Structure formats: structure tokens, C-alpha cells
Amino acid sequence: MAEAPIALITGAAQGIGYACAQALMEDGYRIVLCDIDAEGVHAAAETLGQNSVALVCDMGDAAQIKTLFDTIEKDVGIVSALVNNAGIAAPAEFLDTTVEQFQRVIDINLTGTFVALQRAAKSMVKYKLTGSIVNMSSINAVVAIPSIAAYCSSKGGVMQLTKSAALALAPHNIRVNAVGPGSIDTAMMAGVNANPEAMNTVLSRTPLKRVGSAREIADTVAFLISGKASYITGETIYVDGGRLGMNYTC
After folding, report:
1. Using alpha carbons only, what angle is made at residue 161 by residues 96 and 91, rounded to the nearest 5 degrees?
2. Which CATH homologous superfamily contains domain 6-240?
3. Contact at 8 Å (CB) between 8 and 59?
4. pLDDT at 248
5. Which residues belong to the active site?
6. d(CA 92, CA 15)
7. Cross-strand partners of 66
8. Which of 163, 86, 82, 177 is CA-nearest to residue 124?
9. In 10 A of CB 234, how many CB atoms?
């Protein structure tokens, strides 16, 4: 019997990344969870069980990302499914945001996504694997918030990177798509969850009148990874409760 395919999920210690790991394990993948949080990612892998392994990596460091793939290929095998989920927001007032703060967000959210995508694709091409890559974008690739200018910029870049990579890799039977979450109940929304006024603002902009769950994002990711999405590439699927359809709301 052939071994199960390998999926790598970055930013997998909690939230959307961990939910993606659960969903892909249910679909029969061996899971490699990656996160900068060593304690958290090892605990996540222990919870998932024997078909998972945890590795620590700073996705803002290109050298660490390349070492990550070398380690996976040496100890586990070749990745055929990649979920580029790791990301930070680092909110700050626009006029107070430093170049260093802006660059750190870009390094993780955009450059790190490119480095991992390219490195994964090189091995998929070398070993002639039919691969699938899903990048984590955001509705903030399209609509903006002034206090997270770097995040919005990075996610707009992820949307365009997804299209470019999809075109480049299509001849190799590698699909590249993205998922753009709206307001999702994760640690990134903790401040909003604790503030009724802020939550009311979020819900006023969400036609379905609720925030989404990490699993709802993960199920969309799993669909795009799967053969059910075999004719979809270069797309960003927005999972936002209808938010972008009413973007006239201030």
C-alpha cells in the first residue's frame, strides 16, 4: 500500500493552521505542523497523534524555511500539499508605523509565503508530483484598515503571488489557490471578542451576522487541496459571511 501523501501547514500551533491540519489529516494526509511557537506546535502534534510531526520555523527567515524543507524531505518525505498559513498583523497607527514593523509583516506574510511556495514547488516538479498549494490571504487584500497597512499590503501581495505562481506551475500539474478569511474567531480577534462595541461593528458588516470558525476556513482549504477542486487554480476564495458584497458599509 502506498504511503499517505504529506501536507505541510505553517502557523499550525493554533487557530486556522491547526484546524487545517485536522481537516487534512481527516482526508488522509500525513501532517507536518510548523510554527515559531515551539511549545505550541509540539503540543498540537501530540494532540493530532502519530501521523503528525512538529517542526519549529520562523517564516520570516528564508534560510530557516529552506532548512525546514530539507529536514522534512530527509525525515518524512516530499510535500505534495502546502498550506501557507503563518502570518501576523502587528497593528499600529499609520503615521507611527516604522519601516522595521512594516518589513517584519511583509517578511512573514508575503516573502515567507513566496519562499515556502517556491521551495515546495521545486521538489514537486523534481519528483513529478501532482501538487496543491493554498496561501492564506484575507478580505484585507481587497478592503483596507488604516491601522494594519502592512497586513493589508501583504495580503494583497499574496493574492497576486497566488495568480503568478498558478500560471507558472500549471504546466507541472501544480495548482495554487488562496483563501481570504473575513472575521474569524481566532486569537487574532481576541480584542474584538472582548469588546461588545467592536463586535457589533463587525457584525454590522457581516450579512450572516456571525463570525466564522477556524474549521470553516480549514474546510475551504481542504476542498482546494483536494481533487474536487482539480480545475481551480489562481483563485482566491473569500470566506467572509458576505462581507465583501456589502463593502459600502463604513
Report:
1. 20
2. NAD(P)-binding Rossmann-like Domain (3.40.50.720)
3. no
4. 58
5. 151
6. 23
7. none
8. 82
9. 17
Taking only the tens place, the pLDDT of each residue in 87-136 is 999 999 999 999 999 999 999 999 999 999 999 999 999 999 999 999 99
**What integer pLDDT is reported at residue 247 of this predicted model?**
58
C-alpha to C-alpha distance for 86 and 201, rounded to whole angstroms? 26
Strand partners, 35: 56
The size of the chain, in residues, is: 250
How far is 60 from 150, CA to CA, in rounded Å? 14
- pLDDT of 201: 86
pLDDT digits (tens, 9 = 90+) for 83-101: 999 999 999 999 999 999 9
Tell me the backbone φ, ψ of residue 104, rounded to 5 degrees: -60, -40
Asked if 153 contacts 106 with a C-beta cutoff of 8 angstroms, the reply is yes
Task: For residue 8, give the 3-state DSSP assignment.
Answer: strand
Strands 174-181 and 79-84: unpaired
- State the cell numbers at 20: 487545517
- Residue 35 φ/ψ, nearest 5 degrees: -165, 160
pLDDT of amino acid 2: 62
> Using CA atoms, how far apart are residues 111 and 203, in angstroms rounded to an integer?
32
Kindly list the domain boundaries of the chain, sorted by start residue: 6-240
**Amino acid at position 207, single letter:** P
Q: Three cell numbers at 81?
A: 500539499
Q: CA angle 108-129-177, nearest 5°?
A: 45
Q: Extract the residue ranges of the chain whose pLDDT is less than 50.
A: 1, 250
Confidence (pLDDT) at 189: 72
Contact 33, 54 (CB under 8 A): yes
